[in-house]
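Reopening this one. Same input as before:
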Amino acid sequence: MEEGKIVASVTTDGSSPWFSGHFPDNPILPGIAQLKMVADLIALSGTGGLSMSGLGRIKFRKIVRPGDLLDIQIICGDKKDQYNFKITCGNDDVCSGWMFFTKAQHENTKTTQITNS
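Same output, byte for byte:
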């Protein structure tokens, strides 16, 4: 990890639950799984105490299949807690966009249980 930059390579595992149901006999990695990989890398980068608050300019350009090797590059944006990311597979762009984070609030919150009668 360089200053302000996170890079990782991930091989998609065909036995991952993410491929379950997407789609029978034609498995693809859902876009939400790609975004989760990026968010997890940012969380693991040591910035700590952040909670994702938004997404911007998300583009999905290539279908990801089991066994594909993905390269993920994340760069801290000009604004604090803003990250620009790009996922590639070989020379092809897979997914790109912005993720926005805020400091996580650790307040005592009251939960309400709802039951059906």
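So the earlier flakiness isn't reproducible anymore. For the record, The domain at 5-103 is CATH 3.10.129.10 (Thiol Ester Dehydrase; Chain A).
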